[in-house]
Design a protein that fits this description.
Length: about 190
């Protein structure tokens, strides 16, 4: 037959071997893509929770440095609230003439698997702003003039805030961050 020398085809064994090699190669490419995508999301999630935590610590630092009085500090299984008074105006002798109250309220912020969120309410502006999300734990610790822990609001000179943030992906914690700040109250 004149065309038989030019007609070449694949045998079933060659086709099966090509299919197997192609499947292995495709599985490797898909696995690499999935791991790269997970790494990218982990980096994005970390950046997001770190920015949230930094914003919360920055606001907290600005307010606490000017505190004249700690109005209240409460913590239960679901909500943590810290109310502080920040002087707005002083007399020529240094007496506080007017102040504002700033309240930090953290909902679901005690062992919450990253479902907590923190609000800052300012009586001067009337704004109630959400300043952080994905909070796993948020704790306040009070310190007296000597630097020892205290539970007495009237003798507290310093406040420490500890925030642990986490973000889950498909019910697994993928990114975590921990921020802490210890500040002295200048007007107390």
């Amino acid at each position: 037959h004149p065309f038989s020398s030019r007609c070449h085809g694949f045998t079933l064994t060659e086709a099966m071997l090509g299919l197997a090699l192609g499947s292995i190669l495709l599985a490797g490419i898909c696995t690499t893509y999935i791991f790269s995508l997970k790494g990218y999301h982990a980096a994005v999630n970390y950046r997001q929770i770190h920015a949230n935590g930094r914003r919360a610590v920055d606001w907290f630092s600005r307010d606490v440095r000017g505190v004249s009085t700690i109005a209240s500090l409460t913590s239960n299984t679901t909500t943590t609230t810290l109310s502080i008074r920040v002087p707005l105006t002083f007399s020529s002798t240094g007496t506080v003439l007017s102040n504002k109250t700033v309240t930090y309220t953290c909902y679901n912020c005690i062992n919450s698997d990253g479902r907590g969120y923190l609000y800052r309410y300012d009586t001067n502006t009337g704004n109630n702003d959400q300043i952080a999300t994905n909070i796993y734990n948020l704790y306040y610790t009070l310190f007296d003039h000597a630097g020892s822990n205290t539970a007495v609001l009237a003798t507290a000179k310093g406040i420490q805030v500890d925030i642990k943030l986490s973000k889950k992906v498909i019910s697994t914690i993928q990114s975590e961050d921990y921020l802490s700040a210890r500040l002295d109250m200048r007007n107390k």
